[in-house]
Amino acid sequence: MPIKIGPAQVEEFVLSKSDEIFENEGEPSRASVRVALKGEADTRNHMFSLVVKEQNYDDDVVKFTSPISIDDIRRKEVFLVLADCNLADQNDKPIFVFDNNRISMTEREFNLAFGMLPLPIADEIIECVLQANPQWIRLG
Which one, out of 49, 75, 95, 123, has a CA that is 20 to 30 A from the CA of 110? Predict the structure, then answer.
């Protein structure tokens, strides 16, 4: 019998470091992360093809570079595989919107929301993504 492909595996995490730093005594902060599928890995890896390209035109070398930072890559990884997160703003509005274990926001909306997070929270979410997707620990 052939392999039956199901939905991506989802791993649940408690953001315990962030809860401790920000003295959260209520419901624990949580993030759920999908294990990346081939398409998500391809999208992530495509960023590296944009970094530097050289083209040789009869002994003249033209170099194209793109300003992609480690932060750009880590943010993209979170965008690709974050499946759920219960973080909310001061008005109890969810920071991220999800549908069927996927972010239901444009990448621009996500980038703005992720950029508003305190650094320790963003870093802990990135740690969760890398724990669920250890193939992404090394950049490149």
Answer: 49
Per-residue pLDDT tens for 49-78? 766 666 677 777 776 677 788 899 999 999
Spatial CB neighbours of 77, under 8 Å, sequence gap ≥ 6: 44, 126, 129, 130, 133, 136
Give dist(CA 34, CA 80) in Å, integer: 9
Helix, strand, or coil here: 118?
Answer: coil
pTM equals: 0.86
Q: What is the token pair recorded at 15? A: 């953001």
Q: DSSP per residue over 61-73, as a string?
A: EEEEE----HHHH
Q: Which sign, positive or negative, has the C-alpha torsion 83, 103, 42, 29?
A: negative
Q: Where are the domains of the chain?
A: 10-36+68-136
